[in-house]
Amino acid sequence: MKIVQDPPNKLPQDTPADVAEAVKGLLHKNPKERMLPAEAYKMTHESLIASWDRRRRMATPLDIRLGLTRPEDVSFKLRWGILGCGPISSDWCKCLKEVPGAVLQSCAARDEAKASKFAASHGVERVAPDYQALVADPDVDIIYIGTITSLHKEQVLMAISAGKHVLCEKPLATTAADAAELYAAAEARDVALIEGMWTRYFPAVEHARAAIELGTIGEVRMVQADFPEICYAVQYAPLFFGSTAPTAVVSAGTGGTGGGAVIHYDGRGAAVLSFPSWACEVPEVCEVIGTKGRITLDNWAMHPSRITIRLTTEQCWNEPQGHTSTAQNGVRPHVEQVTYPVPEPAGLPAAGWNYVNQHGFLYQAEAVHRCLAAGLKECPQFTKAESMRIMEMLDEIEKGIADPCR
Ligand SMILES: NC(=O)C1=CN([C@@H]2O[C@H](COP(=O)(O)OP(=O)(O)OC[C@H]3O[C@@H](n4cnc5c(N)ncnc54)[C@H](OP(=O)(O)O)[C@@H]3O)[C@@H](O)[C@H]2O)C=CC1
Ligand SMILES: O=C1OC[C@@H](O)[C@H](O)[C@H]1O
Asked: The Gfo/Idh/MocA-like oxidoreductase N-terminal domain covers which part of the protein (predicted)?
């Protein structure tokens, strides 16, 4: 794609090629080397914009940017127990191996022989005979739940009762009421319960969040996103509109042939979300549309490796007919595009991996280590409040969609 910067970009100057090069250099190093010195992460919004190394700071993980955690705490020791030995647990273990503080302590499956095979292929130290034994192991600090969603509730509760922290695959539960019960149980036991919405930890998403905070595209008026699994598309609404309650949620369609939802935030704008059937070519693009520009996350939006920021040119803001769109005014937007390559192997499932861009799980894995090191019970990239808000929206959306894929 040709990058257009005509007339010169109003953002502080970084040529896209420079940015891509710098970030590529960072991301392709091993996790320790990828870390900037702690000092480099201490920043305010002003320094974010003014700093010489803005290119790195735009994608700084939110927990570090807010000063809640320290980059070096990817080395904080956490002994992981893997509950469920299916494809997603396999990809998770591969990423944990690259986190300096992670220990693959134990795993369990419904069938012990399956768990033994999984342990051998991933270098997991122990095999527990069943899930209950896994969560009871005193040498396990945190349980990763990679089973089907309908089982999450009983398994999360089992792990929490044993006093373990939990990272549970998205979606956390099948209803908001169940999710609320799980968060209440975690709070009562004083353990962390984190829903694994891994999208939130990708550098392209961190960059988008920082750009919105800086007002780069003005006021957000519309969010558009698509994905067959509703929770993925929906999570982009509170990311860019905040976790306050929407004024209306309407939906229609079916899981089999496709559906959609509009989430309206009175006086602010709306999220227009589509849920194409799995049997289609899925665009997997997120657009964040503002009064001064537009952000596109893609390649692919639920685990994006690219952000494109199109800025409305200043001349458009004063157009007499009140249309700020560059297209309506026959001018080109200023375009800045930054690619954040997922660590190799990336892209379509590479040999030995099960899902797309799944090596990007690493970003979430590192954040969990940093946040637990700091004594946090959640990661700021995806808080309990937001997770609950999304669960409520999912309940509403599912009222209008037959056979939805949550
Ligand atoms: N973050 C991400 O990128 C991804 C997240 N996910 C999420 O991960 C979770 C699992 O993914 P999904 O592909 O649906 O699951 P799978 O069909 O891969 O099953 C995962 C595990 O669930 C258990 N399981 C499967 N079927 C049954 C059953 N009928 N009865 C009891 N246990 C069963 C098995 O555990 P055992 O090994 O113990 O037998 C299995 O290994 C979901 O929450 C999904 O949303 C999925 C893909 C990607
Ligand atoms: O959660 C997921 O489930 C389906 C996959 O294709 C997708 O990449 C993954 O994020």
From this structure: 78-195
